[in-house]
Design goal:
Elements (H helix, E strand, L loop, with lengths): L42 E7 L2 E10 L6 E12 L14 E10 L4 E10 L4 E10 L7 E19 L7 E21 L4 E5 L2 E5 L4 H7 L1 E13 L2 E10 L9 E9 L1
Antiparallel strand pairs: 1-2, 1-13, 2-3, 3-4, 4-5, 5-6, 6-7, 7-8, 8-9, 8-10, 9-11, 10-11, 11-12, 12-13
Length: about 260
């Protein structure tokens, strides 16, 4: 969830007094609040990290139910790293697909989040629920809870006498995730996000436990250039035993269509 996470508009009449971003649509062309972590709108974005360029395309669509909103988001990460003299190579090193839906009568969102890392041949898929809480002054929280599984296509079976070798895809672990998206509004154009997520694997796979168990932190500072465009600076950090202790940075530009 952006982490990296894991941007969607919360359109709520019933909770409109809880947050300035919870406004009813005035038509299909109404602009949505891009600072809202539950924002649903058609969007495009481009970002840069030390691994290369990231590209994002999100498409909102009609669910056929006036009380719900939904969108699909596809992200491709780490392109042209070598060409730009960064740490990555010139091919995409990761892919992320999300499907997000929102019930506008309850303020509850649900998300399918699928990730694949081409360099490690390891992916994950999770399903989670989010709920908008009433604002506390300039602070608003959106708690999240969900479950998922990891997938690898380099699974091996090692026999004591006759090793089988690679057998293709396998599910090395399942996991649960709990956390929150948090937004603090400084003014109409500047806001801060902090999105801590705790992950715990549900089996005894020590490799995946070292890689995933623990807190995963994402912080962002954002500036709204105009009603359709913003720039965002992200910092991601994990205290899992098997991950790097360094902070990962990315700068992102987003446009609402």
């Amino acid at each position: 969830m952006e982490n990296s996470s894991y941007s969607r508009t919360l359109v709520l009449v019933s909770l409109s007094l809880a947050s300035p971003s919870l406004l009813a649509l005035e038509g299909d062309d109404a602009l949505q609040d891009m600072s809202d972590p539950l924002a649903v709108y058609t969007q495009g974005g481009v970002g840069i990290t030390d691994q290369g360029l990231n590209f994002k395309l999100g498409m909102a669509y009609d669910t056929g139910n006036p009380d719900t909103m939904a969108m699909n988001i596809l992200e491709l990460k780490g392109f042209a790293g070598d060409l730009l003299h960064l740490d990555g190579n010139d091919s995409f090193d990761a892919l992320r697909y999300r499907h997000f839906s929102l019930d506008t009568t309850t303020g509850r969102g649900s998300q399918l989040d699928v990730n694949w890392d081409f360099e490690s041949d390891l992916g994950s898929a999770s399903y989670s629920f989010m709920q908008a809480l009433p604002a506390m002054g300039d602070l608003q929280l959106y708690p999240l809870a969900g479950a998922g599984l990891t997938v690898t296509d380099t699974a091996e079976i090692r026999g004591t006498e006759n090793p089988v070798g690679s057998v293709g895809y396998a599910i090395p672990s399942t996991y649960m995730v709990v956390g929150t998206y948090a937004k603090y509004s400084i003014n109409e154009n500047i806001w801060l996000n902090y999105n801590p997520m705790y992950i715990n694997t549900l089996n005894s796979n020590h490799y995946m436990a070292d890689l995933m168990d623990g807190w995963h932190h994402e912080a962002a500072a954002s500036y709204q250039l105009n009603p359709r465009q913003n720039v965002r600076l992200f910092a991601n950090y994990s205290d899992s035993a098997g991950t790097s202790s360094s902070v990962e940075w990315r700068l992102e530009f987003n446009h609402q269509f």
